[in-house]
Amino acid sequence: MISRKRLLISLLALPLVLSACGGGGGDEGGGGKKTSDLSFAVVSHSNPGDKFWDVVKSGAVQAGKDLGVKVDYQGAGDPNQQSQLIDNAVSKKVDGLVVSMANPDALKEAIGKAVAAGIPVITINSGVEKSKEFGAITHVGQTERIAGEAAGERLKSEGGSKAICVIHEAGNVGLEERCAGAKDKFGDVQNLQVSVSDLADASSKIKAKLQSDKSVDAVLTLNNGVAIAARDAIRDSGAEAKLATFDLDKDVLAAIEADEISFAIDQQPYLQGYLPISFLQLYNTNANSVGGGQPVLTGPGFVDKSNAKTVAEYAGKGTR
User: Fold this and answer.
1) What pLDDT digit, counting tens, does each position of 240-297 carry?
2) Do residues 119 and 94 touch, judged by C-beta distance below 8 A?
3) Which of 51, 58, 172, 233 is close enough to 206 for a disulfide, judged by CB 3.0 to 4.6 Å?
4) How far out from the chain centre does Cα 133 lie?
């Protein structure tokens, strides 16, 4: 009688043992693919040497290492080249695609091909207004107009009355939104076009503007490299304009501590690289989605003299 009971217990336990040994373990992804076999592509609108995008790349690469997935990061400032990189990723049948959309309409067809192929897409940084329309499962970044409003409001509170907003990439809708938001809250804001690929020329153009219009008492830049160019322009022109910027690095943080830059709007680029990779891993392995139809915001946040030293520690490690 005892042996029969033991046999019955063994038979009841057998399905549990088989289940534990089967293919439903934590390393299994969608369609039976292991996490270690997952491959994600990141295609940004970055140019070589752009410090901001270097931090985004660091976040994406580190997420790949932490989660055990493959991450291929590529960037192209030209939207046609960026579309080609997206097409290449689709042809490789990646398990997820991360795309920044500075020029959304130019990428619509390529992203559409990815979505049609069943590849989950997450947009980052720019193009939040088109993200859902294009079929992305979520957007990671900041709402540029709101961030611009925050910058304009603070510049005005610090006594500014006339500002220039320096746009460093022609046709970048996100940058235009920042300037528009700043104008909404600040008032008198004029846009100035420069090129991020020629910072010496950018400095010269900002200097010329300050010398030709002495009433400009505030400068808002939208890139950390351009911020340093603007700092030099303000110094060389003899102007006393307040300077604020979007994005930061070691140089910007040092300038904040030296009272050369009033504040920086931080959208935390490391998170814009790291979070999408983790979201795609969860989407593939556990059918999770994040955001509930709304963007996952990484900014805006302010970095000023009160917290610059703390942030500088992490910027030195390439994570801020």
Assistant:
1) 999 999 999 999 999 999 999 999 999 999 999 999 999 999 999 999 999 998 999 9
2) yes
3) 233
4) 19
Q: Say which residue the tokens 């904040």 belong to.
A: 256
Q: 205: how many CB neighbours lie within 10 A of its CB?
A: 19
CATH superfamily of 144-266: Response regulator (3.40.50.2300)
- As a whole number of angstroms, the distance between CA 288 and CA 280 comes to 8
Q: Which superfamily does 30-141+269-289 belong to?
A: Response regulator (3.40.50.2300)
Token pair belonging to 39: 């491959």
**pTM metric for this prediction:** 0.81
What are the sequence ranges of the domains in the chain?
30-141+269-289, 144-266
DSSP 119-169: --EEEESS-HHHHTTTT-SEEEE--HHHHHHHHHHHHHHTT--SEEEEE-S
Tokens coding 52? 């901001």
